## 1
Amino acid sequence: GAVVSQHPSRVICKSGTSVKIECRSLDFQATTMFWYRQFPKQSLMLMATSNEGSKATYEQGVEKDKFLINHASLTLSTLTVTSAHPEDSSFYICSAYRSGTYGEKLFFGSGTQLSVL
Amino acid sequence: GIQVEQSPPDLILQEGANSTLRCNFSDSVNNLQWFHQNPWGQLINLFYIPSGTKQNGRLSATTVATERYSLLYISSSQTTDSGVYFCDGRAGGTSYGKLTFGQGTILTVHP
């Protein structure tokens, strides 16, 4: 079946550094990917929609300059948390949207636990 | 946007028990999905069910669109069913993947 690979699974960084998270669709082309954020024991919050070859669409309240999204190919979207601070610590999840012969479905990455010290 | 209310918020079961999870929606939806997030964070799409009933093994889901609710049934629960179950409802024309999750039902199945 379709697989979405997300790396790294866990990252610990110092305050002020930037962290890049990759989301890859391994066996299908994803023109659209999504990035979510999840705090402990809370639901997922959609941060942005990543569109291949164009600018990402951010949800209200999400800082574009803080969370840089690049979707340079049909199989890769990256989320860069710039100048990370402790309040950016969270669980980040990506998803990739597949449509076509086998129907429409969302596939999720395994998530990235970011801890900013 | 559409508001999603999930119940119960928490559910504890003995292995082998059956359970029903519910999602209520504030307005009509024509895209509805159920998801399971395991204790390690991995999310899986369980059902896409804008209306009617679907079954997949021990799981089944029913959506009554006219009454704005959906039910997820888990039969003969297993410890691997533990985790959080989310539902999402989309109004017509909204992007399929642009999800707004409910607060979820936390399911714990004890051996």
## 2
Amino acid sequence: SQTIHQWPATLVQPVGSPLSLECTVEGTSNPNLYWYRQAAGRGLQLLFYSVGIGQISSEVPQNLSASRPQDRQFILSSKKLLLSDSGFYLCAWSAALGNTIYFGEGSWLTVV
Amino acid sequence: DAKTTQPPSMDCAEGRAANLPCNHSTISGNEYVYWYRQIHSQGPQYIIHGLKNNETNEMASLIITEDRKSSTLILPHATLRDTAVYYCIVRSRNSGNTPLVFGKGTRLSVIA
């Protein structure tokens, strides 16, 4: 069966510091990968999605970037965090665009 | 994707069936009805989806009206662990890069 892992689960970072969240999927090949963010009390916002290695699409302009160095690895990064980057970050995967999307457990980021 | 309307909150007694309604009167012919839930501080969990026939799996049943303008998610024997926000989403399987759009959902509280 397929599983998705993301880490770290929680982190507190100062403003201006870098960020790296990692996500890996097991049990499938060539998944579509997604990064979502959920700000406190708000809905999920799609940040990035990827249909293959090195292929990244950005949904909203922001202080973040994403990379897919391997087939089942998706990384969310920032060079300098802002207070507004605080939130709950979720990695997700699907077998194909438009198919059922499965989410990881999420990473809580607090920028102070 | 078509929009959905759900009640903001519902209560259900433990052991009873929880029936969560969803209105999607503008759904189009190629759009599926998806249900997810999000337990506090966790990633959204896929529950079930359907097109026009009723569906059942180990978690829940999905009843879709004949005109497809509304549906009901049924948790047959609710437990305290079913307390969560439940999201009804309509989405085409050919939606390409269209993000999964979560509304505000229904906050289900299962009461002992």
